[in-house]
Amino acid sequence: MKYLHIYFLSAALLFSFDLNASKYEKESASDLYKKATKQLKEEDYKSALKTLKKYTKSKKKDADGWTLLAFTNRKLKNYSEAESLYAKALNLDPDNKIAIEYQGELFVELGRMEEANANLAKLRALCPNSCEELEMLEEYISGNKTKSW
User: Fold this and answer.
1) In a domain, 118, yes or no
2) Tally of structural domains, the chain
């Protein structure tokens, strides 16, 4: 009888670990992306930074993920890191309009207007009939844009 009790106790412990295992499972890349965009909309950049680091670790070739990670670093005034991450995003997708726009905003913030205007020229080439990213960077360069998310 003693051994039977130990068997049931062991089985109960194993079963309880299985029930609690879902708490510790990794979040899916999709869940991480959704979580990060929510954090960014709430301007919770420190949390978004952690979430996007996890996301980009799982989705190394997603230019949009690297762009958001760069954006988050820029908002936290980690300019050197942001610049490196925008370059990484644009290396993966050279025509990523959002990355070009946000990188242009970084250049404005750093007082590098020639580079910001070069990004504006890239967007003009990508958007001959205009696009949201082109208009937003034009506003940012002119000083009329106050919020970039």
Assistant:
1) yes
2) 1
| 38-48 average pLDDT score | 97
In a domain, 37, yes or no: yes
Q: What is the pTM of this model?
A: 0.80
pLDDT band for position 26 (cuts 50, 70, 90): confident
Domain span at 102: 29-142
Query: How crowded is the C-beta side of 67, counted as CA atoms within 13 Å?
Result: 22
What is the three-class DSSP state of 44? coil
Q: What is the mean pLDDT of the chain?
A: 86
CATH number where 37 lies: 1.25.40.10
| Helix, strand, coil % in the chain, rounded to nearest 5 | 75, 0, 25
In sequence order, which ranges of 76-148 are alpha helices (DSSP H)?
A: 79-92, 97-109, 113-126, 132-142
Q: CA angle 77-80-81, nearest 5°?
A: 85
